[in-house]
Amino acid sequence: MLLRHRIRALAGLGLATLTCAVALPGEATAATGAAPATAATPATGGRASGGGLSAVIRYTEYGVPHIVAKDYANLGFGTGWAQAADQVCTLADGFVTLRGERSARFGPDAKPDGSLSSATTNLSSDLFFRGLNEAKAVDRILGTPAPAGPTRQAKELMRGWAAGYNAWLAQNRITDPACRGAGWVTPVTALDVARRGYAITVLGGQGMAADGIAADARPGAAPRTAEAAKAPADPAEAARKVVDEQRKNAGMGSNAVAFAGSTTANGRGLLLGNPHYPWQGGRRFWQSQQTIPGELNVSGGSLLGMPVVQIGFNERMAWSHTVATGVPVSLYELKTVPGDAHAYLVDGRPERMTERTVTVPVRGKDGRTSRITRSQWWTRYGPVVTSIDDLPLPWADGKAYALTDPNAESLRFTDASLSLAKSRSVRGAQDALRRTQGLPWVNTIAADSGGHSLYTQSQVLPRVTDELAGRCSTALGRQTFPAAGLAVLDGSRGGCALGRDADAVQPGIFGPSAMPSLVDAPYAENSNDSPWLANADRPLTGYPRIFGDVSTARSLRTRGAVEDVSALAKRGGLTVADLERQQFANRAPAGDLAAAGAAKACAALPGGRATGSDGKPVDVSAACGVLARWDRTVRTDSKGAVLFDRFWRRLVRSAPQAELWRVPFSPASPVTTPNTLNTASPAVGRALADAVAELRGAGIALDAPLGEHQFVERNGKRIPVAGGADALGIWNMIESAPWDSARGGYSEVRHGSSYIQAVGFDGGPCPAARTLLTYGQSSDPTSPHYADQTRLFSAGRMVTARFCEKDILSSPQLRVVRVGER
Which residues form the signal peptide (predicted)? Predict the structure, then answer.
């Protein structure tokens, strides 16, 4: 009642005056006399989007909007408006992509930012998305009744988001130089918003294979690249690379841990979420609180263009996601009809492929527009592909390959996120995931105020059981499936179809009962490895291979994370402050395992000299003490971290795992093995010599503090950045742009820690939460929220979240606006 009363008061007499006086953070100056948005959408039958939609937005510190609306359409409106105010250029660029207009706007050979597909050129991207649009792939799913299709609430959110984005465009001038005055910033429709959600959903499937689908695939045609022309020496290794690439396309990575009440100071759950996502482009997170009084109240991070929170918390439950090991696609090997490569056999009967002819307008170097046409071929299993990453799939010798992606039949990601946002407990989160079955490529980790914890790999996966793979794998599949979980099935046999689980909302996917899950363990953690060691004391096994592996070596990041969180759980008495300390501990597990050995090997070198990869001797004697004294962290003031980082990256690239360690991996000790650096390997001295020579050549001291050489530049000012690469095993993962000695080292972050949240509960209506959006709310360099949280990240600090009304309204930086179409 208090919330409703305050909202009515804000929306009353004084708010109209307040709106005129208060500008939205990051918002451009209001344009005089601008008309409201009038873009027609399919969801409204051609009428103007929204019909007078509005919302109240309260901004608190660091430009975080708290959006309040009376229903889902109006909430979508406020979200679309606020996202446009912070990220209009990035969003507009994405809509150009989704419409297949990049070649006409920016030329065919330039490269998209990779946020919506893995296409390597604008032309490939346009062919892929125009093919989907002309086939009305998204339109068809929008027309499918729930639960297989989106709910009314999801559609209303999309409709409102489009109207809010359009209203912001109509009423404001753009200040961001990235698109100020650009003709490609145009109104959008609800269908555009749905297409964006669809593109995100298929990032690990058809989006990963965009080049292969969009290529001018013809029977016997030359491969698209010289690399693809080479048959892989090891198809299993090629499949591993495909699956690794799929995970990179779907998301960069993540860590998350939930602690049960048995480990915490107050007996209630705790959650730390640390997704690793790009710092630039359309796959950034954006932070908000979304409220419909009496219906929804959630705070967290959303992917740009999505109308709901994807990772967040409410007053009773918090959740995060990590990119899962489940392989969301499978391949079918087709037997083509002799003399007709565009037909294939199923149980001895021929079926014609369906041709999709796609034409893309292209701007030439002379500024003139021409058109390029390609044919794409589709089968009952999905599109024909001639390669995926390094795995060639030649359409020749009576064979072709089709890609099956069950996420291409789903728009349920929004509903899954919305249902999680409304869940009041871990059990509610499980029920939400069972109902919606809409998470495409992520695990879920959650904790609640009742003291419960959850890990579950509830994702949409092709229903490739181990039995089906054993019965239907082709010769290629018998290599790729055990190695990487990528199935290659016999498409000539109808009995090799994916089938249907009784509890699945769509054919060809696993139902909820098959999902690996762990409830109420003292801790439940994932760092992008399989479900096996979500808790090292309660390993998960028995799931189909396509979900992930068991009894194999874990990544250094998983090993370091399990060491840290299991120690915290055993210590007990945990609070939100402990989660924040874990986030910024910046321990380097690789350093703990190898730095002392490297220092001893260095000290034992005759004359203190090692031979580099160029065959030249290098005096490395000064490096020995630096490595020995290094504190094994990657804090900004850590001396020796730069040297070890440059040494370690070289070493793991050049030395096979079997050669790197003296003690090999043991399934009986998966967290502590392999270990003990093999200093007898010549790769150790070579990597050390190369690292020392590189730093000296750049004029960088071997004991230089990390922050002097790992940083970002924002408006001409350097901001030191802590954290380190995945290869170092660090929780606070930072993958920087390639090393550039001329610019002083790592001068930009490509991806890494992004929307961070540490959440606890005290039994009341106000969760104890601290958050951080590492790169800030806005990518507009003129915005006050362009780098404010980046400076916090550099200092190892987080923001105390304002969730309850009393906290929002007491913010010293409170700014309130009512936004609407009129």
Answer: 1-30
